[in-house]
Design brief:
The complex is a heterodimer. By secondary structure, chain A is mainly α. Helix content of chain A is 75%, strand content 0%. A five-stranded mixed sheet of chain B has the order 2-1-5-3-4. A two-stranded antiparallel ribbon of chain B has the order 6-7. Classes of the chains: A mainly alpha, B alpha+beta.
């Protein structure tokens, strides 16, 4: 076990499995958030419903927290090893098949991490908006309305989501390769799946702050 | 063609190198890239200057000796060829060419554009072989191998060990090379006995030599002169994960 996970291939497998868990969370998170378009009652009912399965929720949360931690730790460890592997840089270097997303995974990942910290402070711990204290704790709808009327916050969320899209665009296809699933026609399917899922998740998440900012949600 | 060549010059492995610019006239489109460098060297020698050192051997694209990162791409702009098979017609309309050695901690520069690729030899020595008793040649049909497996092994065995994959990879990873070697032997019945130990030892040597790690950018397969694909890296992952989780030996 130690030999597996201390090796770069083992660390890549850890990044792949934890990445997959986080993609699963994102799909569920987006499905819940899209209820904002169904109105305040639907969103509050969803928030209250989640409280009823607190036990299961904590198991999932623990898995998610562990995934985030392991994903970041393995990513940073691999990046440090990779930087050491080429001490002298090229004077001229081209990307041949590599995409922009693949070249800046660490950077996009670190920005997403800072976004997650802010997002937790904003809507989970509610430290950024004192006016949330006056609201019903399940009135997520109103909290979103207050938040995304601010152009600064709307822009920050949008940029972070675009970076998430970029990260997933490479990450989803890449996780299959890391787990050894990349041969024959599967690689083409995996690349299309990665592009589709990252795009769909990105558009889904972007739709919320954008719709609120432009008064498209009543 | 008249060219401005920006070439990495480094006296020896301990000296600090730098890019130096040379102007070269009289280059013909039909010349190979290495013939163009030969022309430069003839002029440098005539001027009692030190010629540019670079690796080359067969000049037929099969030995894996030539290298060079040309304008930021290993083996230059043409797909699926080695530098010796690249011709100056590929540089029509260009006046500046940047020529650098493979850059990786595991491939230290020996002189100018020559790098020490013995790290690859040590990876092969760690497991890129099968152990057989010496003796008479085994009859051709003793081992029955399906066409599919033979093709797979042959595709992987096309690797000439030039190191372009390492040079182009943004992480200086050798996983395409190791993946090709592991796939080659793991696809054949002769390679089965030592399959697990082989992958464990080769991956460990790869790490110890200081190569980086694959982040699936696919640049390696794009510059491989033998068009070896990253599916071999996926196979390396499968072989390594299976072997490391099921083998108790310390190899």
């Amino acid at each position: 076990m130690q030999r597996t996970f201390s090796s770069p291939i083992g660390m890549k497998a850890v990044m792949a499995v934890t990445g997959l868990a986080m993609v699963g969370f994102l799909i569920a998170h987006l499905a819940g958030n899209l209820l904002v378009f169904a109105g305040p009652e639907a969103l509050s009912a969803y928030a209250r419903g989640l409280r009823k399965i607190e036990g299961i929720l904590w198991v999932m949360r623990s898995g998610l927290i562990l995934s985030v931690f392991l994903h970041i730790a393995s990513g940073i460890r691999l990046s440090l090893l990779n930087q050491r592997a080429r001490p002298q840089k090229y004077a001229v270097k081209k990307r041949v098949k590599s995409t922009f997303a693949a070249s800046y995974m660490l950077l996009s990942g670190l920005v997403i991490l800072s976004f997650i910290c802010f997002h937790l402070a904003h809507l989970t711990f509610r430290l950024t908006h004192p006016e949330f204290a006056a609201l019903d704790p399940f009135d997520i709808y109103q909290m979103m309305m207050i938040s995304f009327k601010s152009p600064v916050l709307c822009l920050f969320y949008s940029v972070s989501i675009l970076l998430l899209m970029l990260h997933l665009n490479h990450g989803i296809a890449s996780l299959f390769q890391s787990l050894g699933i990349w041969h024959g026609n599967i690689n083409k399917f995996v690349q299309v799946l990665g592009a589709f899922l990252s795009f769909a998740l990105g558009i889904g998440f972007l739709s919320i702050p954008t719709a609120i900012f432009f008064n498209l949600v009543q | 063609m008249k060219l401005n060549l920006h070439i990495w010059r480094q006296k020896d492995k301990n000296a600090a190198g730098q890019m130096k610019t040379y102007t070269l006239d009289g280059v013909e489109e039909s010349m190979s890239f290495l013939e163009m460098l030969d022309l430069l060297n003839e002029q440098l020698i005539a001027a009692k200057d030190e010629p540019v050192n670079f690796d080359h051997d067969c000049r037929e694209g099969i030995c894996g000796a030539c290298s060079l990162v040309i304008n930021g791409t290993a083996h230059g702009p043409q797909e699926a060829v080695t530098t010796c098979q690249l011709h100056m017609r590929s540089f029509k309309g260009q006046s500046d060419i940047y020529i650098e050695p493979w850059r990786a901690k595991a491939f230290p520069v020996v002189k100018d554009l020559v790098v020490d690729r013995s790290a690859f030899d040590r990876i092969i020595q760690a497991g890129g072989f099968i152990s057989v008793n010496a003796g008479g040649v085994v009859d051709a049909n003793t081992f029955l191998i399906s066409k599919n497996d033979a093709d797979k092994a042959m595709d992987a065995a096309a690797c000439i060990g030039c190191g372009a994959c390492v040079a182009q990879c943004k992480n200086a990873s050798a996983m395409l090379f190791v993946g090709a070697k592991v796939t080659h032997l793991a696809s054949l019945p002769q390679g089965q006995v030592e399959k697990k130990e082989r992958v464990l030892r080769m991956v460990k040597t790869m790490q110890d030599e200081g190569f980086g790690n694959c982040t699936n950018t696919l640049d390696c397969e794009a510059v491989c002169p033998k068009s070896i694909g990253v599916s071999h890296i996926a196979k390396l992952h499968r072989e390594f994960l299976a072997a490391s989780l099921t083998t108790t030996s310390n190899s």
